[in-house]
């Protein structure tokens, strides 16, 4: 893979180390610490994301220029469940996207593009298919963003992905090769589907009141399963979405018990999710070894920007750290709410970065709104259909003009601009 690491994302369908390395080259950045790193990205990272460490300039007595957090961007990558038939149609006009799908066909052994565009939906929704589909569509959406707004990509300071979306975030950040990461996603998806088919299980979306005690509810559900003769039943929180919202996963009998006793546990709304298994619980343990083995064969580097882990909501630190937590993620709850707090935590009065959800669906934007309304106000979605393509282009063209109008109005009425937002 060494020679491919120098290949550009655009020419090889992302088989190199990502858009960020291309951005670094365009800015004339040099190698530092064993890998390419855009100086401007490094500065933005330290001024707007936190955990600042002294650099070469400070060591010499210099002072790094502080930049506004608004000069940096955050990219969010969706996970399984965001897929739909027709996704990707609005991306095929951009350079490199068709090459990505051709390479995906070689890696996967089937025509992923046709499955995404034409279905059937039942096949696209299968775990073994939808995870690679979301992974490729999300990175293809980055191609669109890079074509329409290259500055957004160049100034990205942080990324996070929901479940399988972490693989796309790591490829974007230059930590993994596209083809190799896709191979890992393939193994992961097939192993997770096999684990799901071994035990009747599922996932239940829950909205609870403040009095809701999710751990106690899960304990009661497990006791119910034991009374039915189920050995070592599983029922636990598998996804932390936003305040008062959880996804509980486990044996079907446990989830049915929770639905039937929703009022007892102060659940205001419950809904079974259209998935085949209890993902991010110990029922996925059979998938651990296959994923661990394939990750050992992949070259993983330290990300060029901050990428946050679902497992602990903290930044990945080095290659071994990535390898370990990607495996652990299979059987650990997704701490998405906590990750949103980690990314957007800042001192009072500080501006929030612009956030872009790249890929199918807008679920992560909806969750961000619940977690942090102020951060959500700087949110945009980079879609994967022709309709979304037209809307996004129009928004880009009118954004500057609208900002000038708002600024003029604010001056006219002696109000700060933030009041109008």
From TrEMBL:
BP-aspect Gene Ontology terms: fatty acid biosynthetic process
Region Disordered, residue ranges: 25-70
Catalytic activity: holo-[ACP] + malonyl-CoA = malonyl-[ACP] + CoA
InterPro entries: Ac_transferase_dom_sf (IPR001227), Acyl_transferase_dom (IPR014043), Acyl_Trfase/lysoPLipase (IPR016035), Malonyl_transacylase_ACP-bd (IPR016036), Mitochondrial_malonyltrans (IPR052760)
Keyword Transmembrane helix in record: yes
Biased composition regions of type Basic and acidic residues, renumbered to the chain: 61-70
Gene Ontology annotations for the cellular component aspect, listed alphabetically: mitochondrion
Entry keywords, A to Z: Fatty acid biosynthesis, Fatty acid metabolism, Lipid biosynthesis, Lipid metabolism, Membrane, Mitochondrion, Transferase, Transit peptide, Transmembrane, Transmembrane helix
Pathway membership: Lipid metabolism; fatty acid biosynthesis
Residue span(s) of domain Malonyl-CoA:ACP transacylase (MAT): 76-387
Gene Ontology MF annotations: [acyl-carrier-protein] S-malonyltransferase activity
Subcellular localization(s) per the UniProt record: Mitochondrion
Main localization (coarse): mitochondrion
Coiled coil: none
The family this protein is said to belong to: Belongs to the type II malonyltransferase family.
Stated name of the protein: Malonyl-CoA-acyl carrier protein transacylase, mitochondrial
Lineage of origin: Eukaryota, Metazoa, Chordata, Craniata, Vertebrata
